[in-house]
Amino acid sequence: MGYLGALALLGLLILIHEAGHLIAGRLMGIPIAEFSIGFGPRLRSWRRGQTDYVLRALPLGGFVLPALADPAEFRVFALRKRLAFFLGGRLAHLGAAVPLVAAFNATRGRLSLHVLLIAPFGQVVQACGQFLSLLPTLVTKPEALRGVIGIVAEGSGMA
To answer: Do 71 and 30 meet the contact criterion of CB atoms below 8 Å apart?
Structure first.
């Protein structure tokens, strides 16, 4: 995978993450003013309902901005609603991982109902468990923590 492929993959991950916040906010009744992919100047924007959807020049991040006059207003929402909003992006990644793992399994030539519908759940749970087992290492060896550049470098070496 080249750098453009890695950038496209990163953009897809950002889109999934921010969409998770948007959906969680909507489900919890939190009004959303802006759903933005990227940072910097606006390249394209459109409005649907009360929300502005924006594509920005630097596609290395994104944000979902609740429609609140003052950030302190966010505390008006129940704790469970705020937690759902904050966790929405991470849960969207988990939800997207299952069909992506199923698609990966299909490209490996192993086609069965078990491999495509049941096994991906177990594979995602196993991957999450492996990640959680690595967290103590990150605390004791902070140099093991890599940012976007390290992820791209490692990913390009795997192709």
So the answer is: no
Q: What's phi and psi for 90, nearest 5 deg?
A: -65, -40
Q: At what angle do helices 3-27 and 148-158 cross, to 10 degrees?
A: 120
CA distance 10 to 77: 31
Does residue 92 contact residue 16 with C-beta atoms inside 8 Å? yes
Q: Which of 57-66, 125-134, 148-157 has the lowest average pLDDT?
A: 148-157
Per-residue pLDDT tens over the stretch 63-107:
999 998 888 888 899 999 999 999 999 999 999 999 988 988 888
Rounded to 5, what percent of the chain is helix, strand, coil? 65, 20, 15
